[in-house]
Amino acid sequence: MPTKSERISDLMRHLMNKAANEESVTVGHVLEVFGIRGFAFLLLILALLNIFIFMVPFISILFGIPMIILAAQMILGIATPIFPHFILERTIKREALIKGLEQSIRGVEIIEAYIKPRLFVLSGPHLDRVHGLLVLMLAVMVALPIPVINIPPSIALVFLAIGMLQRDGLFIILAYAVAIWCFWLFKSLGKLAQALTR
């Protein structure tokens, strides 16, 4: 969990400063900066970046696949995130990453003012695998190359990750509420697609 001197927004600024000196940044570097802080923290960063740089073609796949891998490892009870090389070597353009981080930092700084430990029973380690199942379902939605539609599941992942990181059960409840709406949304879109293809 980030400390007062190492807030989420501070760590994101660290990555942004690194990116400013590079033409492109690999997914591996993002994981190097954030991954050692655990599954929830890394999920938060990936979900935020997917929200704020969704306009980059196929970026949801680039962030969605690591989320799926993280979810599977959470369900299996693996202690430290592990990723294959083909994920680590993928690059993100500097301009898109910096813009996404700038917007993410502004959003995170607003949210940080409302985060506080509460409803501890919802954020205990005994529920990590249950949350992992939810992450897996949402991550699959994120990975689908459907512009804009994969933003709602990313928002649910942001709430869930914050709740797990800061032991804020209210954010976990919000995550599940948004997730339920996402399931309804994707089901409705599926029915619409079937109707249009008949």
Task: Describe the 3D structure.
The chain has 198 residues and is mainly alpha-helical. It has one domain (8-197). Helix content is 69%, strand content 3%. The protein has helices spanning 8-19, 27-34, 39-52, 59-76, 85-88, 94-112, 128-143, 151-166, 169-197, and strands spanning 24-26, 91-93. The protein has a two-stranded antiparallel sheet with strand order 1-2. Helix 3 packs antiparallel against helix 4. The longest helix is centred in the C-terminal third of the chain and has 29 residues, at 169-197. The radius of gyration is 16 Å and the shape is globular. The termini are far apart. The mean pLDDT is 84.
Strand content: under 5%
H/E order of the elements? HEHHHHEHHHH
> Which structural class do the helices and strands define?
mainly alpha
Number of strands: 2
C-alpha geometry: globular
Mean pLDDT: 84
Largest sheet, in brief, is: 2 strands, antiparallel
Fraction in helix: 55-70%
Distance between the termini: 51 Å
- For the record, the count of structural domains works out to 1
Radius of gyration: 16 Å
**Number of alpha- plus pi-helical segments:** 9
Low-pLDDT stretches are none
Physical arrangement of strands within the biggest beta sheet: 1-2
